[in-house]
Amino acid sequence: MKEKILAHKKGIIIAVVICLIAGKVVHGKLTTPNVDVAMTVNTTPVIKGDIQESISLKAPLEGTESAEIVSRLHYEVLQLNVKEGDRVKKGQVLAVLDSDTLKQEIKRAEDQLALAKVEDSEAISRSAQNVELAKAQLEDKLKDQQITYEKAVMDRDEAKRKYDNIKTLAQAGAETQEALKEAKNTYDLAQQTVESYTVENGKVIATEADLKNIEASQDTATASRAKNIAMLQTELNNKRKDLEECQITSPIDGTITRVNIKLGRFADETDDSKPMFVVENIDQLEMEVLVSEYDIGKIEIGQPVTITADILKEDSVTGVVDRISPTGEEKTGTSERVIPITIKITGDSKNLIAGINAKAEILIAESKDVLILPLECLRENVDGSVSVLRLNQENKIEEISVTTGVENDLNVEVFSDMLQEGDNIIVSPTADLTEGMTATDPALSQKTTTEQTPEKTEVENVE
After folding, report:
1. Where are the beta strands (DSSP E) in 105-237?
2. Burial degree of 124 (CB within 10 A; 0-12, 13-18, 19+)
3. How far is Cα 71 from Cα 345, in angstroms, rounded to an integer?
4. How far is Cα 11 from Cα 4, in angstroms, rounded to an integer?
5. pLDDT digit string, tens, across residues 356-369
6. pLDDT in tens, 261-309
7. 355: pLDDT confidence band, cut at 50, 70 and 90?
8. Is 55 helix (H, G, I), strand (E, B) or coil?
9. Which 8-state DSSP code applies to residue 331?
10. Beta-sheet strands, E only, within 397-449
11. What is the mean pLDDT of residues 92-96?
């Protein structure tokens, strides 16, 4: 009974206290002057740490050097010397084709070429003899003509002398006009005879007709025979080359990664028209990735790369940007251009396999032990400057100008003498938030309450 009375008194006391508190609150509302209504915002603390900017791209792993070995020859494969996985050296024979028929064809081609050369040599010899004979005959002819020419010159001079004498006598009336006319005709005929010779400095020379006769004595089939010999030589060279190619060799050091031919098949009839062999240098792997034209300006030779792949599970391998293509190409399905770059694997690649897909994360920039904020905290101003809004301990908004550094998809490095680790920065600041406004972050209030609760409990326990 006593306990019930005490409980009843305690209830009355509690009720009175509640009424007093309620009255005080109402009185406060009636007497407190107007204050700013606090805006509700979300904040995040400035943190200090490391930040990296990187570009992630996917591509298959490849050997640094590869060769697809094919044959254009329709000859049977007699020997197959390697299998997939075999390591080979440059020049090593991988397969041998049937070349017996080809060797017979080469022998016939050699005989035909030799015969054509002999016939050409004989024809050239005959032609030379004919030319020498024609020249000798012309020389004898010119000697005879020289003698007759000199006699014709003497006869003309004598006819000229007689004509001049008769002309003088005729003018004196001692000779008749008939005698003068006859002397003139004799002289003209003698002059025509002299002019019929081709003479240079008093020496009879060969006429164009004489020179053409010598040309006619030459062998006119020389060019045709030379063309035929060249064709026979080319045919022989091609067959000899075919014979060399009957030994299928590796053009590089590497590992046989594909064999698409079988014994007894023709070399040019492989499985699914694929190369006979594929040889790759898989001791050194690389990957070619396509970088957007919007990002290529950030890529430099020598930048570190982290390689990951399903086959590595949680592990990764290091790499480096090794080459950047000087030209871009069209990205399928868009107007965007992409630029191929080659990434060389520098770490231990023993657990990697050529041909599998891998992810390359290229490190563009990195900063350590710096102030970091989410990108969505930044406010870009009309003048191009960047600022953030800090919520101070009095729940007032402060606008702080900042400069930015390294950024990634989520966060950014910020610089400001007015910022420090732990400052509460408003996330996604809207245009209506200005310097000096009152704002509150419910999450911060809840956090503060949670932190203070143990202290209150401790006080109550003391009481």
Report:
1. 199-200, 203-204
2. middle
3. 32
4. 10
5. 999 999 999 999 99
6. 999 999 999 988 999 999 999 888 999 999 999 999 999 999 999 999 9
7. confident
8. strand
9. P
10. 397-407, 411-415, 424-426, 439-440
11. 97
The least confident of 125-134, 154-163, 180-189, 241-250 is: 125-134
CA-based radius of gyration for the chain: 55
d(CA 355, CA 309): 12
Tokens of 407: 């950024």
Tokens 């897909």 belong to: 357
- Indicate the burial class of 69 (C-beta count within 10 angstroms; 0-12, 13-18, 19 or more): buried
Query: How many Cα atoms occupy the beta-carbon half-sphere of 49 within 13 Å?
Result: 12
* Stated length of the chain: 463
Residue 215 pLDDT level (bands cut at 50, 70, 90): confident
DSSP letters for 372-402? EEEGGG-EE-TTS-EEEEEE-TTSBEEEEEE
Helix (H) or strand (E) holding 42: none
Residue corresponding to tokens 């209830």? 11
Please list the residues that pair with 60 across neighbouring strands. Answer: 357
